[in-house]
Amino acid sequence: EIIGDSAFEGCEALQQVILPSSVTDLGKGVFNGCINLATVKLNEGLQVIPAVFLGCKALHQVVIPSSVTILDTYAFNRCSNLANVHFSEGLKLIGERAFKECTALRSVTVPLSITKLGHGAFTDCTNLTEVILLCGGRLLNQGFLYRGLLGGEKALNKEKLNEMIGHGIVLNDDCPLATSAFLRCPLTTLKISIPRSLSERMERLPGECRLSIEKRVHDLRRLELTQDGNILAGFPLIRGPFNFIFVDDTNDETAESLHQVLRWISFHELKESSILIELAMWKSSLVEERARADCPTSVPDPAKSLIMDYCGFTGFLEPVIEGN
């Protein structure tokens, strides 16, 4: 079913809307100017949300269904009381000025599925101080995630980040990245989640090892451990000419902290591998399937060094082994 263009535009007495799942298309301007519309329930089935809630000043919360892939231009423009927006996985595009002048927004979490935030998507959200991007797998360089700073790559993939929140122009790696999605927003830090692959490596560690890393993360600059155990890397933002916000990891401070986490994870992985090797060697030395107290055999230090060298961990893990 389709609700046609401007069907309820300017209905100032309208306070609540519940769309059934049978509605799959919304025309432009359906609820524009419904200044007392406070509650909206959007059900699965919609794929595109066009400019339908422009100027709905009383709207304070909205959940975007997982079936929606596009939030089009001006979708929630000037919804000045909209304080909470939940984007479901599946959303790919937030269009130009979709949330312009949503002045009650303070925090936005962008899902993994997002590929592009349009120019000025959150322009003039004058209380928006926090943006979390849950797509670290795309926005952090893979070479860095394997070898840290020793691999010669920066942590942040500026080209990919620019494609998502900037103008899409390819930048030199040594240039700061200007984002056009958050013009005139009081942001100070952009937070990016570590990739799922890195989280899974932590989850596979024994509980005491994982807790040890999580405890030490609190002491690292520009890293934040969330309640669900995810790690967010904060990249500082610098305000430049024409109210553009520039993203730049000054002195690689965020990269240094992420590098340290990588070393801790790798160290515990190697430690657990060594224990397994020692257990295997102990088992292989059993005679007639009888466990003897004098059978345990440790992996010699030279062998461990060879394993580390073969895996490329020698220089990478040295600061961790020394206790730094």
From TrEMBL:
Top-level division of the source organism's lineage? Eukaryota
Leader sequence segment: none
Q: Name one Pfam family in it.
A: LRR_5
Quote the InterPro entries the UniProt record gives: LRR_5, LRR_dom_sf, Surface_bspA-like
- Record-given protein name: Leucine-rich repeat domain-containing protein
Organism for this UniProt entry = Thalassiosira oceanica
